[in-house]
């Protein structure tokens, strides 16, 4: 069995990976680490876990938190994992970090990201950069299999990169024409209460935010540029809509040459033929975010506007699954030589 420690266990990301691991045939949760609600069972905070996970939340210095494990999930803010990972790696433990700490493989790329979010641009463990892998399995399976440290992708980044990767790889869109118009559910803001997420402030309310520069732009541009072999810049607009979970990203790019929708669909289906969690649909498919809720799937609706010679892709993911805990478990499976679908191949709940 793969023995697991979860740091930041009481947040949405910690609860999400706990839910998945409880159903995983090859994993066992050993300890749950938190800075708040110490001693409380996780099921007290999340009553739906009663009888499934009644383990207590432990302080990081609790002796029980030092029990041997094989992998640690850091469901923590930026600059926590980068400081703690070295001690775990020294014990032969693998690390999967939800934050931006290990999403980039050079100190320069990390500094660009950290500056954008107002953090110290100096990485606490720069020598680990280059040994880590970016945790988008559909693009980096082989690197993830070999890595001891994986940086989970951001939720918006996951939806946009998967939606645009085939077009970028094939040089099918003009590199400075890409627009990412992204809408997320309120759970993307995390568990902590804030005035802007108070029910009266969110009900029937939609708004754009971080127009001056969202942190996930760095990931999207970095990954698409690497695929294209040339510099790609995007216009990126994020919006919150009054639903609990889900991301819908509508992605646009001007085509470099005329293509039909059928031709573009063939490109996308070929690109993702070995990716069990990406499903490609034509422009008339009756799909939406409800059809990926609670799953690790990314549903892509591919459309070509022949009148304007423009690609349009609508990408649907569950921000707490494919955008977070689901991708993390998919990465764990790859790191331990398991089929990447283990514990994840399930439909969502409908309606």
Layout of secondary structure:
Layout lengths: L1 E6 L4 H11 L4 E7 L8 H4 L11 E2 L12 E4 L6 H10 L3 E4 L9 H10 L16 E2 L2 H10 L2 E3 L3 H15 L8 E7 L14 H4 L4 E3 L6 H13 L5 E7 L6 E8 L6 H11 L6 E4 L16 E8 L4 E8 L3 H15 L16
Parallel strand pairs: 1-2, 1-4, 2-3, 4-5, 5-7, 6-7, 8-10, 12-13
Antiparallel strand pairs: 8-11, 9-10, 11-14, 13-14
Characterise the protein shown here:
This protein has helices at 12-22, 42-45, 81-90, 107-116, 137-146, 155-169, 199-202, 216-228, 261-271, 321-335; strands at residues 2-7, 27-33, 57-58, 71-74, 94-97, 133-134, 149-151, 178-184, 207-209, 234-240, 247-254, 278-281, 298-305, 310-317. The protein has 351 residues and is an alpha/beta fold. It has two domains: 2-153 and 322-335, Rossmann fold, CATH 3.40.50.720; 155-319, Dihydrodipicolinate Reductase, domain 2 (2-Layer Sandwich). A seven-stranded parallel sheet has the order 3-2-1-4-5-7-6, with helices on both faces. A seven-stranded mixed sheet has the order 9-10-8-11-14-13-12. Helix 3 links the parallel strand 4 and strand 5 (94-97). Helix 5 (137-146) runs parallel beside helix 10 (321-335) and helix 6 packs parallel to helix 8.
In a few lines, what is going on in this structure?
The protein has about 350 residues and is of the alpha/beta class. The protein has helices at about 10-20, 40-45, 80-90, 105-115, 135-145, 155-170, 200, 215-230, 260-270, 320-335, and strands at about 1-5, 25-35, 55-60, 70-75, 95, 135, 150, 180-185, 205-210, 235-240, 245-255, 280, 300-305, 310-315.
């Amino acid at each position: 069995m793969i023995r697991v420690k979860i740091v930041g266990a009481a947040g949405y990301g910690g609860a999400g990976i706990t839910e998945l691991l409880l159903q995983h045939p090859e994993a066992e949760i050993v300890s749950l680490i938190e800075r708040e609600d110490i001693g409380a069972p996780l099921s007290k905070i999340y009553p739906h876990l009663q009888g499934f996970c009644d383990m207590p939340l432990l302080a990081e210095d609790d002796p029980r938190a030092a029990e041997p494990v094989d992998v640690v999930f850091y469901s923590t803010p930026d600059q926590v994992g980068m400081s703690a990972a070295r001690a775990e790696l020294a014990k032969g433990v693998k690390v999967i970090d939800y934050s931006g700490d290990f999403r980039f493989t050079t100190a320069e790329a990390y500094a660009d990201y950290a500056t954008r979010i107002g953090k110290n641009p100096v990485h606490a463990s720069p020598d680990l950069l280059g040994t880590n892998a970016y945790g988008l399995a559909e693009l980096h399976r082989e690197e993830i299999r070999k890595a001891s440290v994986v940086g989970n992708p951001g939720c918006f980044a996951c939806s946009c990169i998967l939606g645009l990767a085939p077009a970028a790889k094939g040089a099918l869109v003009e590199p400075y024409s890409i627009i990412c118009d992204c809408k997320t559910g309120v759970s993307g803001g995390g568990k902590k209460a804030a005035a802007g997420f108070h029910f009266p402030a969110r009900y029937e309310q939609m708004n754009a935010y971080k127009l001056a520069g969202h942190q996930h732009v760095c990931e999207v541009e970095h990954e698409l540029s690497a695929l294209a072999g040339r510099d790609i810049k995007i216009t990126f607009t994020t919006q919150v809509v009054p639903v609990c979970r889900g991301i819908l990203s509508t992605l646009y790019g001007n085509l470099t040459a005329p293509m039909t929708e059928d031709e573009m669909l063939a490109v996308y289906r070929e690109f993702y033929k070995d990716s069990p969690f990406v499903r490609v649909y034509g422009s008339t498919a009756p799909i939406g975010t409800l059809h990926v809720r609670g799953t690790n799937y990314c549903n892509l609706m591919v459309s070509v506007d022949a009148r304007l010679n423009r690609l349009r892709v609508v990408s649907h993911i569950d921000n707490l699954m494919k955008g977070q805990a689901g991708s993390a478990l998919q990465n764990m499976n790859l790191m331990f030589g398991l089929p990447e679908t283990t514990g994840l191949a399930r439909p969502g709940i409908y309606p």
